[in-house]
C-alpha cells in the first residue's frame, strides 16, 4: 500500500517534526534531565517481557506525540493489521510476510490466498518435534549405529545468522548431547575447519536454504556429502546424515536428499525472518523442542504487544520512530547495537541483515525515487569490549550515532562481581554519552590535578565530551528462550515500522541479485578459457582476472 499522493517530506506531520527539531537543536539532554526529575519514569515502557528506557533521547513528550502523528498519518496501525492478516505487504514479490504466523500457537486460522496455513505450520512444528526426539532418543542414529554427537548447519544469510544468534544466546539451555556448528561462507576454510572437528559416523548435516539455489550453500553441501562418502559413508546412507529445510523440494530431491528428510519453508516467510520456521532446527536440536517452543512464545508475546498496544507505549513503534527521528531529521547515518551480554554477541550481525536487507532501498513501493534517507548502516559489538575500542568515536567523534544498550538484569554465570561491574559499565556509557563533560568541568578537573593555567588551556579542549548523544536501554530479567524470542521480534517490528514510513518494500532484496548474476560469468572466466569481451566487463575486473589466472597457471 503506498501512502497516496502526498510525498512523505511534504506531509504536515513531517514538516512539524522539521520545525520541532530546530526548536530542540540547542537544548542539551543534560538540561532536560535537570529540569524534569520524572523524565526517566515518563519515558519508560514495557512489553513482551522487555523494558525500554528511552529517556536519553533528544526529545520531549511533544516529540513523541509528533512522531506518532507521523506514524499514524503514514498508516502504521493499518499496515500492522495488514501484516497480521496476511495481506500481500511484500508488493514486489506479491506475497505476505507472515513470520508472525510461525509463532502463533493459538490455532486460529490464517488464510494466505484462500488457504489456511495454520495446519501446515502446526504439522511442521510437530514434525520438528518428532525429529528432535528421534535424534535425542537415539532412534535416529548415524549409519554405523552410533548416536549423533554433532550437527552441522549449512546455510547463509537468513538461513544462518538467526539460528546462529539464537544458538549462542541460549547456550545455557543446551542439553549437551549435541554440538552445533555453522558453515556459511564459500571460503573453504570454514567448512574445512568444521569437518576437521567432526566424525562422519556421528555427524548430522542440515542443509538450510529457502531457495535451494544459493551457491555458497550448495557448494558447501556438496563438499559435506563428498566428505561423508569418502569417509566410510555410502550413497544409500546419505539419508541418515543429510536433512534439508527448503521451499524448493524438487531441487533438494535433485541434490539427493530423501523426500522424507525435507522440512518445508514457505514463500510467505522471508529468509531474514525464517529462524522461527524449520530453519530453527539446529537450535531445536541443541536446546530441545520445549525451549524452541518457548522461544516462539516469547516472540509471540512481542507480536501481541506490537499488535495491541497504542503506538506511544509500543516498544517496536517507539524504537522505530526514534531511530527515524535521528536518521531523517538529525542526519545520523549509522546506528549501533551494543549488547552487554556475551550470549548476545551475534545480535549486531543478525540485525545488520534484518535491517539493512529490509530497508536498504532507494525507491518507494510504487517505484518512485526516495527523496529522503532510508535505512541506516547498522553495526555494533558487545560491551564492555567496545568501550576499549570504538566507543571513543561515539563519545568524541564528529558523527551522531544513536545506540541501543541491551542488558539482562541477571546473568547465567555468577563470576566474582562481574555482572554488577558489567551493569555499571553499561550505565556509565549511556550516562556519559548523554551527559558529556563541558569545558568548565574539564578545566576544573585539570586545575584540581594541579595543572598550570597555560597547560589547562591547551589540554582542556581535548578533554571535552560533548554529550547529548542519544541511546536506548533495553532490559530483560535474564537471557531466556522467551526474552531472546521477544528481543528479536522487537527488532523485526521496528524494521517494519520504519519501512512503512519510508514507503519501501521491507521484504524484498533485489539488490543482492546483480552480484550473483555477475558472479557466474566471472567464475567462468576465472576457471575456463573464456575470451575477454565475451560478456560485459571493465578493465579493473579484466585485470584482476588476468592476475588471478596467471598466479594459478604458474
Ligand atoms: O535461504 P537461501 O535461499 O539459501 O538464501 C539465503 C540468503 O540469501 C539472500 O537471498 C541474499 O542473497 C537472503 O535474503 C537469504 O536469507
UniProtKB/TrEMBL annotation:
It is found in: Cytoplasm. It comes from the Bacteria. The active site is at 357 (proton donor), 388, 516. CDD domains: SIS_PGI_1, SIS_PGI_2. Its EC number is 5.3.1.9. InterPro entries: G6P_Isomerase, G6P_Isomerase_C, Phosphoglucose_isomerase_CS, SIS_dom_sf, SIS_PGI_1, SIS_PGI_2. This is Glucose-6-phosphate isomerase. It comes from Marinobacter iranensis.
Amino acid at each position: 500500500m503506498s501512502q497516496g499522493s502526498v510525498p512523505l517530506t511534504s506531509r504536515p506531520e513531517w514538516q512539524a517534526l522539521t520545525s520541532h527539531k530546530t526548536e530542540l537543536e540547542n537544548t542539551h539532554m543534560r538540561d532536560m534531565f535537570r529540569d524534569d526529575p520524572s523524565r526517566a519514569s515518563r519515558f519508560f515502557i514495557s512489553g513482551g517481557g522487555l523494558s525500554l528506557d528511552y529517556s536519553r533521547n533528544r526529545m520531549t513528550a511533544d516529540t513523541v506525540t509528533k512522531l506518532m502523528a507521523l506514524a499514524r498519518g503514514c498508516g502504521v496501525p493499518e499496515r500492522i493489521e495488514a501484516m497480521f492478516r496476511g495481506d500481500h505487504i511484500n508488493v514486489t514479490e506479491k506475497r505476505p510476510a507472515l513470520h508472525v504466523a510461525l509463532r502463533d500457537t493459538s490455532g486460529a486460522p490464517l488464510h494466505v490466498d484462500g488457504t489456511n496455513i495454520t495446519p501446515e505450520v502446526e504439522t511442521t512444528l510437530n514434525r520438528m518435534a518428532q525429529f528432535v526426539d528421534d535424534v535425542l532418543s537415539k532412534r535416529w542414529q548415524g549409519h554405523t549405529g552410533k548416536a549423533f554427537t554433532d550437527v552441522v548447519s549449512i546455510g547463509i544469510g537468513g538461513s544462518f545468522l538467526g539460528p546462529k544468534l539464537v544458538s549462542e544466546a541460549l547456550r545455557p539451555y543446551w542439553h549437551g548431547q549435541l554440538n552445533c556448528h555453522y558453515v556459511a561462507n564459500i571460503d573453504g576454510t570454514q567448512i574445512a575447519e568444521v569437518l576437521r572437528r567432526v566424525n562422519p559416523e556421528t555427524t548430522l548435516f542440515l542443509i538450510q536454504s529457502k531457495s535451494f539455489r544459493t551457491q555458497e550453500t550448495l557448494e558447501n553441501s556438496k563438499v559435506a556429502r563428498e566428505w561423508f562418502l569418502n569417509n566410510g559413508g555410502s550413497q544409500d546412507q546419505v539419508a541418515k546424515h543429510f536433512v534439508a529445510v527448503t521451499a524448493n523440494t524438487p531441487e533438494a530431491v535433485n541434490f539427493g536428499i530423501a523426500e522424507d528428510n525435507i522440512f518445508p519453508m514457505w514463500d510467505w516467510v522471508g529468509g531474514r525472518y525464517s529462524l522461527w520456521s524449520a530453519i530453527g532446527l539446529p537450535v531445536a536440536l541443541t536446546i530441545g523442542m520445549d525451549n524452541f517452543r518457548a522461544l516462539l512464545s516469547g516472540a509471540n508475546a512481542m507480536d501481541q504487544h506490537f499488535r495491541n498496544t497504542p503506538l506511544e507505549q509500543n516498544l517496536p513503534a517507539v524504537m522505530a520512530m526514534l531511530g527515524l527521528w535521528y536518521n531523517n531529521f538529525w542526519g545520523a547515518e549509522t546506528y549501533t547495537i551494543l549488547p552487554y551480554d556475551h550470549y548476545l554477541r551475534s545480535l549486531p550481525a543478525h540485525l545488520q541483515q534484518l535491517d539493512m536487507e529490509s530497508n536498504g532501498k532507494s525507491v518507494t513501493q510504487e517505484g518512485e525515487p526516495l527523496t529522503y534517507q532510508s535505512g541506516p548502516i547498522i553495526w555494533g559489538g558487545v560491551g564492555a569490549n567496545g568501550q576499549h575500542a570504538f566507543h571513543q568515536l561515539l563519545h568524541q567523534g564528529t558523527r551522531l550515532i544513536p545506540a541501543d544498550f541491551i542488558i539482562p538484569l541477571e546473568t547465567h554465570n555468577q563470576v566474582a562481581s562481574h555482572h554488577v561491574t558489567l551493569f555499571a559499565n553499561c550505565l556509565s556509557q549511556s550516562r556519559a554519552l548523554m551527559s558529556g563533560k563541558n569545558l568548565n568541568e574539564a578545566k576544573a578537573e585539570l586545575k584540581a590535578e594541579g595543572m598550570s593555567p597555560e597547560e589547562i588551556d591547551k589540554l582542556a579542549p581535548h578533554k571535552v565530551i560533548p554529550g547529548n548523544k542519544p541511546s536506548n536501554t533495553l532490559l530483560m530479567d535474564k537471557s531466556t528462550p522467551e526474552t531472546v524470542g521477544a528481543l528479536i521480534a522487537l527488532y523485526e517490528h521496528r524494521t517494519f515500522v520504519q519501512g512503512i514510513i519510508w514507503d519501501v518494500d521491507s521484504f524484498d532484496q533485489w539488490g543482492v541479485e546483480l552480484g550473483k548474476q555477475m558472479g557466474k560469468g566471472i567464475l567462468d572466466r576465472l576457471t575456463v578459457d573464456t575470451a575477454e569481451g565475451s560478456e560485459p566487463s571493465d578493465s579493473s575486473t579484466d585485470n584482476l582476472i588476468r592476475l588471478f589466472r596467471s598466479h594459478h597457471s604458474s
